[in-house]
Here is the input.
Amino acid sequence: MKTKQQIEYIYKKLGDYWPKYSNRKPAAKIHKEAFTSLIGVMLSAQSQDKRTAIACKQLFALADTPEKMIKLSREEIIEAIRPAGLHNAKSKNILATSSKLLMEYNGKVPQTQKELMNLPGIGRKSSDIMMRFVWGAPNIAVDTHVFRLLWRLGWTNTLDESKSSIIVNDTTPDKYKYAAHMQLITHAKRVCTSKKPKCYVCVIDEVCDKRHINIPKSKLREVVNA
Here is the structure.
């Protein structure tokens, strides 16, 4: 775990290093409307931004509201979202979520995390992204990239991304929360990369534990539990 002083240091350094990301939204999945953003977030799971963007463009050309979405066949949705991968599970969740929104929320996307997490295909990470970038709440989403950074820093003591999300949200001062997700994920993607992390240019290297820095995430559990 990191001390309060170390966490302050991390955010000040990241704020100086990535100033343009303080108010930036993840454009591949966050759109003008709450519904298309919700579907974009669902499609982004285990998908690269470029592929997510293509899938969103193809799907929303066919349907961009829950009313229109439920009129599509599952096969039509699968073909449209194929670039984002996991198209069987995602198509099922898209139709189920669209139906639930119409039946229980008058076609509107709910604005609480608890309600969002009751939608098919929406877990802690996806709900955090929606709360932060659609509803403007100070939530920090933890995906595989942010988790990698938190683990190597020694900020989290669990391999569970949802529990790591709770840890980073509970320990981050409010003044840093709005910029935190984009600065953490950008640093993870561009500096604290999965392979060959660029520690030699890392502005927070001084407070990094470098924990299991050469171990891929898929191997972490067996190493930690050994």
In short: The CA atoms of residues 109 and 115 lie 9 Å apart. The chain has twelve helices and no strands.
